[in-house]
Amino acid sequence: MSAAALELRGLKKSFGKAEIIRGIDLSIGKSERHAIIGPNGAGKSTLFNLITARFMPTAGTVKLHGQDLRGLQPYQINRMGLSRSFQITNIFPAMSVFENVRCALLWSQGYKYSFWNLVNNSRRLTEGADAILDQINLLERRNLPAGTLSYAEQRALEIGITIAGGADVIMLDEPTAGMSHSETDYITDLIMKVTEGKTLIMVEHDMGVVFGLADQISVLVYGEIIATGKPEDVRGDPKVQEAYLGAALEAEH
Amino acid sequence: MIEVTDMHAYYGKSHILQGVTLNVQEGEIVALLGRNGVGRSTTCKAIMGEVEPKGSVKFRGTEIAGRKAYEIANMGIGYVPENRDIFPGLTTRQNLNLGLKPGQKDGAGRWSMQMMFDMFENLDRRADVEASVLSGGEQQMLTMCRTLMGDPDFVMIDEPTEGLSPQMVQKVAEVLKEIAARGISTLLVEQKLSIAMDIAHRVYVMGHGQVVFEGTPAELKEREDVRKEWLEV
Amino acid sequence: MSDQLTTDPSKPAQRMRAGSMTLTLMPWIVAAIALILMPFIFTSNSALTIMNQMWITVIFALAYNMLLGQGGMLSFGHAVYAGVGGFACMHIMNMSDLFASFPLPVLPIFGGLFGMGLAMIVGAFSTRNAGTVFAMISLGVGELIAACSVIIVAFFGGEEGISGDRTYAMPFFGNEFLQQIDVYYLTSFWVILAAALMYLWSRTPVGRMANAVRDNPERAEFLGYSARWVRFYSFVASGFFAGIAGGLFAINYEILTEENLNTASSGVILLVTFLGGVGFFFGPIIGAIVFTLVQTVLSLQTELWAFYAGSLFVATVMFFPGGLAGLLMMHVPVFKLGNAKQLIQPYFKTLLPAAIGILGVCALVEMTFHYRHASIGDDEMTLFWTTFDSHTLLPWVIAGLVAFVGISIAKRNAPDLKEAWDSANTAGDAS
Amino acid sequence: MELILVNIIDGLVTGLLLFMLSAGLTLIFSMMGVLNFAHASFYMLGAYFAYQISIALGFWMGLLIAPIIVGVLGAGVERYGLRRVHQYGHVPELIFTFGLALLIEELVQFIWGKNQMPYNVPDVLNFTAFSIAGNSIPAFKIFMIFISIAIFIGLLYILTRTRVGMIIQAALSYPRTVEALGHNVPLIFMGVFGVGTALAGVAGVIAGPVLGTFPGMAFVLGSIVFVTIVIGGLGSLWGALVASLLIGWITTFAKSYNLAMSDVLNAIGIATPENLSEHWLRDLWTVTSPQIADILPYILMVLILIFRPAGLFGKRHS
Amino acid sequence: ENIKIAFIDPLSGPFASTGTNGLHQFEFAADHMVNEQGGVLGGTEFEIVAFDNKISPKESLIQLQVAIDQGIRYIAQGNSSGVANALTEAIDKHNRRNPDSRVLFLNYAAVDPALTNDKCNFWHFRFDANADIKMDALTDVMAADEALKKVYIIGQDYSFGKAVAAAAVSNLSTKRSDVEIVGNELHPIGKVKDFTPYSRKIIASGADAVITGNWGADMVGLGKSLIESGYNGPIYTYYAAGSGITAALGESAKGRIRLIAQGDINPIGSDEARAAYNAFEAKHPDGNIDQSRIFNVIGMLAQAIEGAGTADDVVAVAKQLEGMEYDSMWGGKLFMRPQDHQIIQNMNVGVHTDENIEFDYDNSGFGVLTESTVEMASMDSPTTCEMKRP
Ligand SMILES: Nc1ncnc2c1ncn2[C@@H]1O[C@H](COP(=O)(O)OP(=O)(O)OP(=O)(O)O)[C@@H](O)[C@H]1O
Ligand SMILES: Nc1ncnc2c1ncn2[C@@H]1O[C@H](COP(=O)(O)OP(=O)(O)OP(=O)(O)O)[C@@H](O)[C@H]1O
Ligand SMILES: CC(C)C[C@H](N)C(=O)O
Ligand SMILES: [Mg+2]
Ligand SMILES: [Mg+2]
């Protein structure tokens, strides 16, 4: 087994008395597309938050490329090449759509906290941001304040910001929620394209997307992973059928 | 029940709704379909008075266009917004409590807090935590329940299944049927065609800020052209 | 509570318009020429003094807006950075050997460095949070340092402050800055330089990220930037430019007192910045100019100047939440559409009577004030270059009539204006 | 020893007066998010109105009517001013109240002039309740204590027994949604603002005779009321009470005892430097407690914010 | 063309009351003493131009510049020695740098001794006794009180308050070394909300007398709270009269407040003064002449201008003022000491009472009754002034 991109060991998280994540061991290999599915409130977003240091784990370790993330801040983790999106849209509402994406490019292009460079002078920044906007079909809306986009457009922008930095581990929390079928298909393709050769970790309730994208699927129920494996295997797993997929799977396909 | 005629709405200068006409009858579930960004949510907001409507909106024969949102709500119209708007700082229970109309007692109407907890066991478990930490799906359930607490006679539900697990989607579909069964009319904005087609009595398809198709789900199924052009399926 | 008091960028008042600032040199050249020509138009010394005061306020307000408009940080104690910079310069002026070793125009840099130093110390703990926590820490630190001014007499000179003499610096090409006009050009040089630097700052990566952190600090963290450090850098930069303003103050007035530090001054700069408009880079410049005029020129005309100033603020926030700059920028689309001509007549028909009506109201206010408070027998008053007896009916009737007629005409024509405005904002129908 | 007792009583009076102001402010600030800089101006209006009414109808009618007028004015300000500004965000609201404070001060001077008003303690209460070692405690102060306690109990009842608090908190984040649930948010906002300012009015009526009724009385109070509610924790009535008392006592004691910094430093083992008058820290060595009494609350606030950003009784913060 | 005098003092803000009252007295004095008498130099009138400095040094300097630009050559100011210190320095610099537009500084109330000592300059004239002179006279009265054992000194924390405290300490130690100073402290100016804690401390110290230089709201607050808290000794003050203070203290302070000032109001110094005061009352029913020295400023300036034969050459006018002797209608002779431009005059100690009061303050029935007078107080007091004359 090659060194995992992300490795979770004995991860636990409680809020007060409620134990939400109850010991998760999971290792996600390099260039793997890994989907995490599970019922509402199972702890999927919490797991994302633990990995990206939005929350402190109660116990256990998270390793990114073999390096322990304990005590690091979100921005430090991001700099190590991990980027995430949010289930509840989290963009810069007052800035233009273009600036939203450009900000996402700054650190990865090495600008750091510099105050001796002018952003407008960098073709690489402008072209990079426009390329992303093109991919997420928002080029036309480039100069609008992001807060005035429709819901689905904001979701698209959320993904754009996440992938802009070119991180090699990308985590998407319900990327297609609120999108229509055609957009969902489009975004699925896009995700497929931009995560080529990268590690993708994704939470999604749309089984079409999950089975279309994922190499590996983990099923999270009540803070525990009850199954991990290839899509076919997971789909057939009776435990999973019972706990999560139920009749829905049939209806979907 | 509700009768919208030639309704227009603007955000600043952009003309979003360009003459929407639709109606929902007593006890009916009507689905409002369309691509992203065509103005379905705006239609709901305009009916609710959150966005200023131009044109006519009649509720049980009374003109409500131009009234304040709380007046409209107190006449018996409920709205479940798409972006959830959970009140942070308040617990799940308190959020539900705020759904009650001024002066309304819990359990006095068609729904009670206990029923909500029975229906969505997730909410029961998280009844007393601050609602802003609920999972995405839980927030979705909470918003719907919160509006129902006010015992509306007509509800507009904006994408209720978004972010819900397949099982929960089924659950919500059942709840929607239950809502109709209790004599409440529903305007459903839904992305998941399968559900809309399954439970709606009638559907409207929107495009370019107008209604471009009206009919039963069965009729829509037959109209390949409409689906191609306006729904991109 | 942490997020209550950042400027909420989704509200129109605070929106820093993206892309509204292009990197052209034109406005700067025009500004520089204007600055050079001003003394030829306003020749008196007092005009120079007032203009100096304006440019100093401009720098200070721009520095303040680096925090408020761009960074979303509301400070109630920003005067201390300018003040401490100024005090430091005052002490340098009084160290005759050191002071004689460099020319005067260099002095503000020291002010900047001291302002920056203090900002680094305070910023180390205050920028951890934005919102109410930041605002209240700034208030507390501001009060603390202002109070120190009367306690730490060695540095702040107590209630009397510290004074010095700018002419002891090394002559600058033979100039000893004896006259106001010399100081004017020094200040003008600095205002252009500082404004340009601050403008450029807003275009740098940290400057851009300041906006991002203002909008959504959490998301910025997930893009690799520490919200706290971004705030810290903005804060320190703002402290630097505030210190420059303080240094110029020291040169211009040759005295610094507690007043340069206290919360009233901090409050004023907030008002000034807001009046101009926090959403635009040049907003604070307008604010500083207008406010200085109100404070110095209007207060010469009427005792009730603070009343008018208060009304101005209230009216501005109520009707033009984008500040005066927002009001100006509203017209940009009209110009772009080439429809500006359509507005001239309706403006003329509405605003002129409105202005006259408001003057009528002011006259009534002044007359009431005079009637109530002037000493007995002192019935004469002068208003708008006319002297009359405030105890007779005629002037009241006239003023009342002017007010009434002016405002009713304005009211009657207002719908036309609105219509014209709407049509001017719609493309295509310019005939 | 006796002085300590006297100071405890004085501090209590100061603290409770502060509480009356901060109670209204915490109501407005925590519920509506409005940093009402004009709050102290409403306090001033309370004093002036009460003075004017007391000339005609006596002190007690002033106590009754002045706060009502102030409350109605406050509600009017919300209705015709703040409500409009509210949609633009909190900073414009703050500027609005800033401007308002300026206007009110000017208006007061316009009407009543610049001198202090002879607004005095009513005769029935103008006697010495008791004396401790030559220090008299006026009956009026005892009266102030009772009024503040009554207000505290009343507010606690309203806040804990009604849904108003919840509705407003919700409306702070999503006013539209709350309205869509059938609550008349504007009316509630107006009510809260009215009640909050009326409370400030009460404080003015009561403090006017003691602290003086003059145009600068609002400015003098300045930002200390904000300090109080921040130390106490926004939205916590108990916090406001505790913080007010704390500030009342701290400042009273600091002013009543001439504790010098050199004593403190000597006590912890740092020797006073030789030739102090030359020393660059000489001003620090000679600082005495009355000199810094008024900034102690600010120091306390900064420290609390650094270590406990939610304040003493504040509910939540990450 | 009128002779303009710029009045630069606070007309708005917390100290507006003192400033406005001063302005009224200036305006009245100019009209009454000069304009109605036919003006100076054969018909030129005085005109007072008011400038609001909001008691801020910075604003004062701007207003000074504006005044100079309007061609004004006489600057009157008095409220707060802090502002006076800034102004005198600015005027000195201005006159050095701009010999064509020199101005004179007529200081009518800022009494920090430094202004006529270390910081003295040729352009500054002080028409009020400085803090040292006043304290000298005040302590003479105190020293006569055999029962006096313990004294408490309290004042505002700025140059003037400090000067008062220093003078009190040095005077008491020479005149009555047996008197113990049980307290000597400064409080921030204009910022104390409630003086109760200070009063408690004063009472607890067992003081028989309190000395304070407080003015404005600080005086009212301190006085009221001392009396309310049960203090019953005398309070020796500089500025406890007029501007609402007398009314606020009222009955409770009767016979307790002693005040050092120049000029006789009760009993009035002369019939001329009585006529002037009555005329003033008729014009300002709510006002007081609580700074009678303002009339002296106008009178002496008029005399100096007549003497110089010009109002434009301020050096000539200043030379006339230097060493001028002037008969004040408020009683006594005034002498402008040439070494330091400090006026020398009779100093009165009066008491706050409602008996034998012809001219009350604030329409309260109470006023200040002169109890004792020191003639030409501190005529020979030393000065460190090294006057540089142009
Ligand atoms: N800060 C917190 N404090 C207390 N409970 C929390 C907190 N954050 C999350 N929870 C709870 O933890 C559970 C898991 O939440 P999480 O958001 O991880 O669910 P999820 O699997 O992402 O669900 P969904 O699919 O609905 O988004 C939920 O029941 C939620 O209420
Ligand atoms: N506050 C706003 N200001 C300006 N434009 C807005 C605003 N809100 C929405 N819009 C625009 O109005 C259009 C319709 O928005 P609406 O939210 O009604 O779409 P929708 O049909 O509900 O789509 P979605 O599936 O994305 O929710 C969109 O193009 C959007 O960009
Ligand atoms: C007007 C006066 C009370 C001023 C005071 N004597 C001072 O020197 O500051
Ligand atoms: Mg989730
Ligand atoms: Mg929508």
TrEMBL record, chain A:
Would you say which domain of life the source belongs to?
A: Bacteria
Q: Which Pfam families match?
A: ABC_tran, BCA_ABC_TP_C
Entry GO terms, CC: plasma membrane
The record's gene field reads artM_1
**Protein name per Swiss-Prot or TrEMBL:** Arginine transport ATP-binding protein ArtM
Keyword Nucleotide-binding tagged: yes
Tell whether Transport is among the UniProt keywords. yes
Q: Which residues form the ABC transporter domain?
A: 6-247
What Gene Ontology terms describe what this protein does at the molecular function level? ATP binding; ATP hydrolysis activity
TrEMBL record, chain B:
> What InterPro entries does the entry give?
AAA+_ATPase, ABC_transporter-like_ATP-bd, ABC_transporter-like_CS, BCAA_Transport_ATP-bd_LivF, P-loop_NTPase
Tell me yes or no: is Transport among this UniProt entry's keywords.
yes
What are the GO BP annotations of this UniProt entry? L-amino acid transport
Q: Name one Pfam family in it.
A: ABC_tran
What keyword terms does UniProt attach to this protein? Amino-acid transport, ATP-binding, Nucleotide-binding, Transport
Domain ABC transporter residue range list: 2-233
Ligase as UniProt keyword: no
Q: Which Gene3D superfamilies match?
A: P-loop containing nucleotide triphosphate hydrolases (3.40.50.300)
Q: Which GO terms describe its molecular function?
A: ATP binding; ATP hydrolysis activity; branched-chain amino acid transmembrane transporter activity
Q: Which family does it belong to?
A: Belongs to the ABC transporter superfamily.
Stored PANTHER family: ABC TRANSPORTER ATP-BINDING PROTEIN, HIGH-AFFINITY BRANCHED-CHAIN AMINO ACID TRANSPORT ATP-BINDING PROTEIN LIVF
Name recorded for this polypeptide: High-affinity branched-chain amino acid transport ATP-binding protein LivF
Species this chain originates from: Planktotalea frisia
* Classification lineage: Bacteria, Pseudomonadati, Pseudomonadota, Alphaproteobacteria, Rhodobacterales
TrEMBL record, chain C:
Could you tell me the membrane topology recorded for this protein?
A: Multi-pass membrane protein
Cell location: Cell membrane
List keywords of the entry alphabetically: Cell membrane, Membrane, Transmembrane, Transmembrane helix
Where does the UniProt entry say this protein principally localizes? Answer: membrane
Cellular component GO terms held in the UniProt record? plasma membrane
Q: Name one GO molecular function term.
A: branched-chain amino acid transmembrane transporter activity
Q: Does the keyword Cell membrane apply?
A: yes
Q: Which residues form a coiled coil?
A: none
The record ties this protein, via InterPro entries, to: ABC_transp_permease, LivM-like
Membrane-spanning segments = 20-42, 54-73, 79-99, 106-127, 133-156, 183-201, 232-256, 268-293, 305-330, 351-373, 393-410
Among PANTHER family, the record links this protein to:
ABC TRANSPORTER ATP-BINDING PROTEIN, HIGH-AFFINITY BRANCHED-CHAIN AMINO ACID TRANSPORT SYSTEM PERMEASE
Q: What is this protein called?
A: Leucine/isoleucine/valine transporter permease subunit
Q: Which organism is it from?
A: Planktotalea frisia
TrEMBL record, chain D:
- A GO CC term? plasma membrane
Entry's transmembrane regions: 12-37, 49-73, 94-112, 132-159, 180-207, 213-231, 238-257, 295-314
GO terms (molecular function) for this protein are: transmembrane transporter activity
Instruction: List the Pfam families hit by this protein, alphabetically.
Output: BPD_transp_2
Q: Which CDD domains match?
A: TM_PBP1_LivH_like (cd06582)
Please give the superkingdom of this protein's source: Bacteria
The principal location of this protein is membrane
Where it sits in the cell: the answer is:
Cell membrane
**GO terms, biological process:** amino acid transport
Q: Which InterPro entries match?
A: ABC_transp_permease (IPR001851), BCAA_transport_permease (IPR052157)
Q: Which UniProt keywords apply?
A: Amino-acid transport, Cell membrane, Membrane, Transmembrane, Transmembrane helix, Transport
Q: How does it sit in the membrane?
A: Multi-pass membrane protein
The record's comment on protein family reads: Belongs to the binding-protein-dependent transport system permease family. LivHM subfamily.
Q: What is this protein called?
A: High-affinity branched-chain amino acid transport system permease protein LivH
